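EI: anyone free to look at a 590-residue chain?
SC: sure, send it
EI:
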Amino acid sequence: MKRRTKAVLVAVAAVLQLTVVVLVGTGSAHAAVGPADDRQLSKPTNWATYNGATAAQVSSYLSANSARLTDIQVESSTPTFTVTMVKNSGSYASGWWWYYGKTEAQVNSLLSTNNARPISMSAYSTSSGVRYAVVMVSNSGANAKAWGWWHGSASFISGKLTTNHMRLIDFGAYPGGGYTAIMVNNTGSNATGWWWYYGISGSAVTSDLTTNRARLIDVNRNSNGTYNVVMYSSTTRAYWYYGYSPATMLNKANQLGERIIAVVSYTANGVKRQAAAMVENMNSLSQKLRSIIAPKVDSGAYGFYLKQVGGSTLASLQSTKQYEPASALKVLYHAKSIHEEALGNTNDSTTITYRYHNMSDPNDGDICPDDFGTTTTTNLKNADTLMMQNSDNRMTRGIVDTYGGFAAMETYATSLGLTSTAINHNIGCGTPHNKTTLVDLGKVYVGFQNGTVTSNSTWQAQFRSRMLNHDNYSGFRNSICPIVSQEATALGKSSATATSFCNAMTWIAKGGSYQYADNFPYTVSWDNLEMTGVPYKSGGLTTPKYFVFGEFVDGTNIGSQTEANSVNTARNKLYQEALRPYIHAALATW
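SC: here you go
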């Protein structure tokens, strides 16, 4: 990247120069981007942001998240804070400290004692004078940089930047006028093209980002509604937003698969709002899958999840967000039924009482079973099979009632490790919404595969056979075999090998679909969870690896059949593209 050595300064008003605080570290400037330079990193990590938090709450959040602070703003004289944090591990692991209520002399002393440099600072007024909240990191090893911090007028800060060949990493308003500035060396391997602006509108920030082909590193808001920002040259996907409520801002970041790196809270017309800078927080496969579904879904929420059984999460977007699963939740009831049969507590012939519509249409399985009182019976095996293959809501309620109702099903869910599942209605009845996550539903499939549901091979076979699977649903191979063929061709494998490979794949699945009106436009909750066995070979033996994949769209408005088809085509493509790299890797062993 071509180095830029001069920052752009946009002056919009004169400000008074204030007392100057100078502390330039002597650390080597050899580290281009270290663990503590988290705003320049885009490796996926766990992160969190909170607002209106007391110091005690911040400490509690840090402990709960095994995290360190990366951005701090004092909201009130209490004081309360808006903070952002990342998990303090892996690429982001760093020694660090945070303090509040400190004078500038105390800040300097702490920096010296800790051999640290500041990365975020918020100056605020108190009855005893200006105080600081500050986040600092160890200035050694990969984090080592020559650095400084000052407060004063914009022109004064500009002079320090130029004289010391530095760039800003944090830039905010100082009580009574002027600014605080944290800067680091911007020469050699530390050199980055960058710009800074102060007192500009939100629309001007957006325009400058586009013109400079940059992304925000820091954002701060002035009392008059203008912004002070720092931006760096970047080809990394990133966004910034302003005027959103804290909850909306967090939802926006999560839906985009972004990490908030800098955020400021403010009040507009008596309502708390935020401005925030974000950066990519997903791996390459997740980014690819996002590019498939995101353009097709213009409302509600969407997400996906790919995990290797016994291995790591391979792709994820909103995989821990609660949503309405509709009939996909039936796999939990199916697992409970198989579990109880394997224990001998019930059997295939156990009588299941179920409700049905009316005598003229006794096979209508799409009803809300709560609406009808006429009952009849069948056996457990038939009820379970109809629940899983035909998605029969009547049989579903019959099985739930047989095993003790919602509470018993939730208790069983807990035993499988599900932590975010709430059962609130009989499936088919719609409200109040049931809630789960892709990760939770995925644990049911993992529980089957690893023997938690049952380790009895006979009942494992029954679990598979009563579901939609590779033997009874042609749509599976119609969807996945073309991908196998493409990857076989890319590897120079024969069509016969591709056919044999696809025939060796296994699959089970359960989807869900709620449509909340009869005619367009209507709102939907659609999802699907599936587990695929991909046949790897080693030493001439086939050893499958199993992958759980799930996706959902929830609360999404559908305006036409064309839109419905577009969304569902993208949903199917998500599955194909999620499995593609692992099909390729497995084919290479054939």
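EI: The chain has a mean pLDDT of 94.
SC: 👍
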